[in-house]
Design goal:
- The chain is mostly beta strands.
- The chain has one domain.
- 14% of the residues lie in helices and 42% in strands.
- It has 2 helices and 10 strands; from the N terminus they run αβαβββββββββ.
- It has helices spanning 2-21, 41-46, and strands at residues 32-37, 56-61, 89-93, 97-99, 102-104, 107-115, 119-125, 141-148, 150-165, 170-185.
- The strands form 3 sheets. Strands 1-2-3-6-7-8 form a 6-stranded antiparallel β-sheet, with no helix packed on it. The protein has a two-stranded antiparallel ribbon with strand order 4-5. A two-stranded antiparallel sheet has the order 9-10.
- It is globular and about 60 Å long.
- The termini are far apart.
């Protein structure tokens, strides 16, 4: 009995000591966010208010402007950008989609873009689970599409992506600072 109690005590102390050494990572300045298509899908699901099926979602990090010049400086023109912060932005289609008339099979993809002052070249890439655009591989591109930059009156401090219902399906609106772009999607 004495050996059993000693063994339990030692085991407990070792477990406690290992847990006491674990330190949580610091809070991320650019929190992870998810946009669903249709908007609010998980909440609608638990409220039994779903009228449209889940067709896509975007997982991205939300960097903040914090008084910085964004486009042309922080996000350089003519260079591949991960469309957010931290991990590269990912889009998941729950059914086959059409982008610019081209079929995209259901599945998970990474989204990048090459921003310019007047347009963004949006890239859908087959590589997933990557940080930033440091290992971006053009050979894994599924498609590229040029989208015009639109100026907006409101200045957004946080980068945002959201789906908007349209006549032909949905539009993924991507906005930050004083600009936005719109990616038309159909299912």
């Amino acid at each position: 009995m004495h050996r059993l109690l000693t063994a339990l005590l030692i085991s407990s102390l070792l477990t406690w000591g290992a847990q006491a050494q674990f330190k949580l990572p610091p809070m991320d300045k650019s929190p992870l966010d998810v946009s669903y298509c249709p908007n609010g899908y998980p909440v609608l699901k638990i409220q039994d208010k779903i009228t449209d099926p889940l067709v896509a979602r975007v997982v991205y990090s939300r960097p903040q402007k914090n008084g910085r010049v964004i486009f042309g400086e922080l996000v350089e023109y003519g260079k591949v950008w991960r469309m957010g912060a931290n991990e590269a932005t990912e889009i998941e289609f729950y059914k086959n989609a059409r982008i610019n008339g081209k079929k995209v099979r259901k599945g998970r993809y990474t989204m990048y873009c090459i921003p310019y002052a007047d347009k963004w070249t949006l890239i859908i890439n087959k590589e997933t689970d990557t940080w930033g655009a440091f290992k971006y591989d053009e050979k894994k591109d599924l498609m590229r599409i040029d989208l015009p930059v639109q100026k907006q009156a409101d200045i957004l401090d946080a980068f945002v992506m959201a789906f908007d219902k349209s006549v032909t399906g949905y539009t993924l609106v991507i906005a930050w600072d004083d600009i936005n772009i719109s990616l038309p999607l159909s299912f």
